[in-house]
Every structure is written in C-alpha cells, then in structure tokens.
Design goal:
- The chain is of the alpha+beta class and 194 residues long.
- The chain has one domain: 3-Layer(aba) Sandwich (Aminopeptidase).
- The chain has six helices and nine strands, in the order ββααβββαβαββααβ.
- Strands 7-8-6-5-4-3-2-1-9 form a nine-stranded mixed β-sheet, sandwiched between helices.
- Strand 7 and strand 8 form a beta hairpin.
- Helix 1 crosses helix 2.
- The longest helix has 15 residues.
- The radius of gyration is 16 Å and the shape is globular.
- The protein starts with 8 loop residues before the first strand and ends with a strand.
C-alpha cells in the first residue's frame, strides 16, 4: 500500500518502494547469507515463505499501526536490501531506523544513500523531529553509515540485548530535524517522492 507515508522514493542510483509479497524471493536470497546476520539478533529465515509471511503480516496491519518499510532496489540489479522504521512514535515525532543490504553491495555507499533519502522523507513528509538508529558495538560498517548520513553518536548501552549466546552492547545514534536542515545540502540524495 502506498500513500503519503509509503511513497516510492528515488535517488541517484536507487528506487525505494514499499515491500510487497513478490519481493520475498529476492529478500530471502540475500538474507540466506549468514554474514548478513552477524550483527543482528535473528537468524537467517528458513525459506522465502518465512519472508513472505512477515510482509503479509505487515500489510494486514491497520495503516496507523504500520511503519514504513521499503525495499532498496538498485537500478540495474533489482532488490538488494531493506530500509524502514522499526518504531514510529507519532506523539513524540520520533522514529527508529533499520536497514540491511546484500553482502555483495557492502562498501558501495548504497545504504548511506538510502538512509539519507529516508531521513529526508522522515523529516519532510512525516514531520519527524528525531530519528535514531543503533548497532552492535563491533559493527563498524553500520557505524560509518550512520555517521556519513549525519547522525550523531549518543552513547553505548552496555549489554542491552542478549543475542547469539552473549550480552551485546549497543551504540545509539540520532539526528534532529534542526540539524538536518542545517546540513541539508551535504546529506540530500533524494530525487523525488511519488
């Protein structure tokens, strides 16, 4: 379902569009790589049907209960990742951002480009004041993405989550609408929302 909160967003190289059931096989292909889950709590999905069920459950939520989730489609290769909000707190105009991309596309600036576009949408269309994200302490790539997108390190919450047999420290980052406006020129990759 598309609408003002779920538009297709285009950047120089990417098309971000709401995920659909037909995306399940492509998402499963890259998610079946265990390296994708090195710094995440869940394990790779068992089948494309598991991915399809997640999309189906999301699509059946009431629109006001649904948070934006887009596939990251690389112009020449199709779906290579996901980006969206895990929590959207309308009362406090804030959200938490999540993202992932297929391993063969790591280090190419794809996630940073997608994050910048979604930040622009969050502050512009959704009128958010604060967008935050976090990563495991050792996830240097994710830290670089957040920093390049203009997010500021807020601190580390020690042993916040138990995952993969150990308690994990989480590094938190955020950016505020006022900061985003100040740096808009250096952080904008969005071509259009439609």
């Amino acid at each position: 379902m598309t609408g003002p909160e779920f538009p297709t967003i285009e950047t120089r190289r990417l098309v971000l569009r709401p995920w659909e059931l037909s995306d399940a096989p492509a998402i499963y292909r890259y998610r079946s790589d265990p390296e994708i889950y090195r710094y995440m709590r869940p394990e790779p999905p068992a089948s494309p049907d598991v991915v399809a069920e997640s999309i189906r459950l999301w699509s059946e939520l009431r629109p006001e209960d649904r948070t934006p989730m887009w596939v990251i489609a690389l112009n020449e290769e199709g779906v290579v990742g996901l980006i969206g909000f895990t929590r959207l707190d309308r009362a406090n105009s804030s959200a938490y951002l999540t993202y992932e991309v297929a391993r063969q596309h790591w280090g190419k600036g794809i996630v940073t480009e997608a994050v910048r576009a979604v930040l622009g949408h969050g502050f512009g269309t959704l009128g958010l004041n604060r967008i935050a994200a976090y990563c495991w302490e050792g996830n240097m790539a994710s830290r670089r993405v957040m920093e390049k997108a203009g997010m500021r390190y807020e601190g580390t919450l020690r042993q916040l989550a138990y995952a993969k047999g150990a308690y994990r420290d989480m590094r938190f980052y955020s950016v505020l609408a006022g900061e985003r406006k100040t740096d808009q020129g250096s952080h904008s990759d969005t071509i259009a929302d439609s």
